[in-house]
Amino acid sequence: MHNNYYFLRVLASTLRQKLMYARLKQCFSQEKDELVLGFERQNGEEFWMKCCLGPQFSCLQFPDNFHRAGRNSVDLFSDVLLAEVQEVEMYENERAFSLHFLGDFVLLFKMYGNRANIILFRDGEFQSLFQSRLKKDANISLSNLHRSLDQSWEAFQEHDGNYSALFPTFGKEIKAHLLSLGYENALLYDRWEMLQSLKIDLEDPTLYVYHREDGVYLSLLKLETEALYVGHDPLEALNALYKYHFSIGEFLKEKNQLLNFFQRAQEKTQLYLQDLLNQGSKRGASVPYEEIANIIMAHLHLIPANVNVVELPDFYRDSTIKVKLNASLSATQNAENYYRKSKNYAKELAHWQEQVDRKMDEIKLWEERWEQVYQATNRKQLKAFIPLLTKDSSQKVVEEIPFKVFDVQGWTVWVGRNAKNNDLLTMKYTKRHDVWLHARDVAGSHVVIRNPQQKVVPKQVIEEAAGLAAHFSKRQHESLCPVIISSKKYIRKTKDLLAGQVIVDREEVILVPPARMD
């Protein structure tokens, strides 16, 4: 409720006592969304206002002193510097107040939550504003800000006890309070009495700062919850709100974001691991390639030419077995294929086991990080993990890119959508040091690991991106897929090549299972 009309009315009254005939000595900004005003009062004392007007949190603060940075600060509203405050005006039924200065200057404080702004007028005409993103504020008319409302008993009767039309500035906290008093079920006159009693309480309220799950907030109403601050001075109350918002509210917000982030990462890794284990079970249940080759060689006389499958006696298991064949090859050549697959199987098995071990280590890491954050009691203990949140949120920026976008352990990965889109990705968007991947010898998407900082891309990131390249290719249903890895600087395209086709001058190849898409 710190931007509620009833609180601002109390604040404006206090500011009138503090600032009448004070001179504005400094007005500058050195942080985004923050304006600092320094006054010199008649008794020579300094009075500071720090106006934090961000889209996520807007609040006024009143520090005892303020030291301006020697650099990266800019003077604003310079026309009002050294001007004397003549009046502090609160606008009726509006979340706004203004400071009137000698010379017909008016500095309007529009406290509209995520649209808060400070606007300068002279002789009633707009001059400039602090938050330039709120361009419509240039059209505000000071003369129209006062809202005179008929809040009489007769008007209340006409609206059949619906107070919203008479008291539009109550806000959700006051409405919730009335609901808790049984307002909806009370008789008309009893409702009126509740409103009158509430209005008296709001004239000179006790101020509270509370903490709840969604953050820290200021209230003009006493709740059963224990308050972080209790008092009558609106300046002290705002200072307490500002302090607790960042020391408690922001800490808990970031803590919950990190817990959710690590929980999602853990669940994603567990799904990947389960997929690998399922692949291992299928391998264990299948007949080894070497045995199939031996069965073929033992029964060459039973295998007709040009068939895709044949049923042969299985002397290993004392039964029969169906063997898949390449109809264009002879029986001996098919046996040789199975012998070759048998040699690769050991490599595949070692690679599979390596991935299983790595994913189990990842799950353990996510669990440890989750536990560390869960046990944290202050923002300092979260500091090492906060960059993970900024990487996660930056994903929203890149979603406007015309490719599929994935986050792989904090690295941004782009995947082409079709042949023309592949050309756009590789030839227009990809930079020299980005990592380029593609499934070998088949049609598929170009995949790029963005590397603007020119760092060494971790092996695990390359393997996961390779899994994406395998998935978005004609090999997506194979157990393992060979994937080309290169750097953009080794990729080129000549005019005779079709859409999506490129020349790779230098490459490496790794075998990976196609990524699982849930």
Walkthrough of the structure:
The protein is of the alpha+beta class. Helices cover 37% and strands 23% of the residues. A hairpin with a 2-residue loop joins strand 11 (207-212) and strand 12 (215-219).
Low-confidence stretches: 392-400
Identify the strand order in the major beta sheet.
Answer: 16-17-19-18-20-23
Q: Into which percent range does the helicity of residues fall?
A: 25-40%
Q: Please, how many helices?
A: 11
Give the overall form: elongated
**Roughly how many Å is the radius of gyration?**
35 Å
Mean pLDDT: 89
Structural class: alpha+beta
Share of residues in strands: 15-25%
How many beta-strand runs? 23
The rounded distance between the terminal residues' Cα atoms is 43 Å
Task: Give the biggest beta sheet.
Answer: 6 strands, antiparallel
Q: How would you sum up this structure in a few lines?
A:
This is NFACT RNA binding domain-containing protein. The protein is α+β, with helices and mostly antiparallel strands.
Topology, pairings included?
Layout: H1 5-19, E1 23-31, E2 34-40, E3 46-53, E4 58-61, E5 74-75, E6 85-90, E7 96-101, E8 105-110, E9 117-122, E10 125-129, H2 153-158, H3 171-180, H4 188-203, E11 207-212, E12 215-219, E13 229-231, H5 234-285, H6 289-298, E14 309-314, E15 319-324, H7 331-375, H8 386-393, H9 395-398, E16 404-408, E17 411-415, H10 419-429, E18 435-439, E19 447-449, H11 459-471, E20 481-487, E21 491-492, E22 503-504, E23 508-512
Supply the key terms.
single chain, 518 residues, alpha+beta, 6-stranded antiparallel β-sheet, NFACT_RNA-bd, NFACT RNA binding domain-containing protein, coiled coil, RQC_Subunit_NEMF
